[in-house]
Amino acid sequence: MLKFLLSALFVTGVLLNAPNLASGQRKDLSGNTATESNEKDMPVHVVKLDFFQFIHGDFPIYYERRMTNHLTLIGGLGVTYRDYWYHLWVNGIDINTDLGKLEETKPGYSARFGARFYPAATPNTPDGFYLSAMLLHKRYNWVQRYTVDNTSVLRNEYRLVTDLQFLLGYQYISPTGIALDVY
Fold first, then answer.
1. Strand partners, 120
2. I need a surface site. Which of 22, 108, 142, 158 has the fewest CB within 10 A?
3. How far apart are CA 143 and CA 105, in angstroms?
4. Kind and range of the H or E element at 168?
């Protein structure tokens, strides 16, 4: 049951939307504006925090920029710590393996870049259903203690994760500026 709940948290990201960084009338690269009375006034720039990536020991900040009514570009940088999701499946949360004992966790980094395609051609982008392709790279660092011939040895270790993700999702930006992104 715990693994199911963690899986559900993994695929649901709750994101905060910072106030629009653009001033004045909002236009995308094609010259379209989002000021018609029957459309919501969507931001051109969105800054987001993804709280549920903590399961992976990742604390990213995303920036999404509307390029056209169909396309946004998204990028993010983050700090990694301990990947709880990985250890749940590999070691059952037990970070002390047969190979050695985890001595210290050190911060690493994460970076991601991608594009989102919103099929509905409205000035509401980045609000609605989307298809996304994203390249993700993470580095986790730690110090492992090994015992060799009754001698304790400390060794700096790391794990690299590089992933190409294809996602189908839905992003809703409320009038108060809070965004919900389910993918």
1. none
2. 158
3. 6
4. strand 151-173
Q: Is 130 exposed, middle or buried (0-12, 13-18, 19+ CB in 10 A)?
A: buried
H helices then E strands: how many in the chain?
2, 8
| Segment 160-174, tens digit of pLDDT | 999 999 999 998 888
Cβ–Cβ < 8 Å for 99, 142: no
Q: Is the peptide bond before 43 cis (omega within 30 degrees of 0)?
A: no
Q: What is the pLDDT of residue 40?
A: 53
Question: For the segment 89-130, what is each residue's pLDDT rounded down to a tens digit?
Answer: 776 545 555 566 777 889 999 999 999 999 986 677 788 899
Contact 34, 46 (CB under 8 A): no
Whether this prediction's pTM lies above 0.85 is answered by no
Is 11's pLDDT higher than 50?
no
Q: Which two tokens stand for residue 61?
A: 């900040």
- Beta-ladder partners of 140: 159
Q: Give the three-state DSSP class for 60.
A: strand
Compute the 3-state secondary structure of the chain and give helix, strand, coil in percent, each to the nearest 5. 15, 55, 35
Which single residue is written with the structure tokens 């594009």? Answer: 115
| pLDDT at residue 26 is higher than 60 | no
List beta partners, residue 153. Answer: 146
Q: What is the C-alpha separation between 83 and 27, in angstroms, rounded?
A: 40
